[in-house]
Model the fold of this input.
Amino acid sequence: MNQVPTESGLCWIADAYSTSFTLTLSEGLSPYELLRHVGAEERHIVPLTPAAYELLLRDEEDHISDLDFLDWEDEAAVAQLTSAGFLPAPPDTIVRAGSVAGWAYALEEFHCQSGKYLAALSERGRAFCVHRNAKGFSRVDYAYRGDEVTSFEPGLPHLTNGAPADVALGFMHSTADDLGDVAFLRFLEGEFGIYLPWEKTEVELPAAAITC
Done:
């Protein structure tokens, strides 16, 4: 993850996770409820900082002393990560979850595991998933009260599944504006007042190792 300025909105996410990212927002859920909905067992949820994304890039044969974020001599920490599925083999993806102003959020650096469960994540209201893949393409999914409402690529309305974005959400994107995912993150800030300070994501948050 790249160094980023300390901003309080959402747009910083697209810079911080410039290669690929997924931000999922679920109205009315707690972080632990969100993680359980995406397939995590509560006994396997551990607190981790963003540095734990190192786990995704390691080879199983590498010694855990190569992980900068982990004191490999801390037997309790190593045992916890092992029992939770983070070690010894690299997990497919790591989902870290937190909460802000009535929403639970999840951050993933490479995959889009949480987006697969958006309908379930919308059981108490609205749920959004904003994903940018490694090729630079972005997609937004929106569900409400258990139903998938729309899935679209900002600026490419012909690739929409479900209701048009302007009808479902009042969102319109011009290709002359920000990149598609940035434009939608800015829309979430203005339309729903969702602000996630960068500093809040740098602390230890409940996290789960997920098999895709």
Observations:
- The chain has a mean pLDDT of 91.
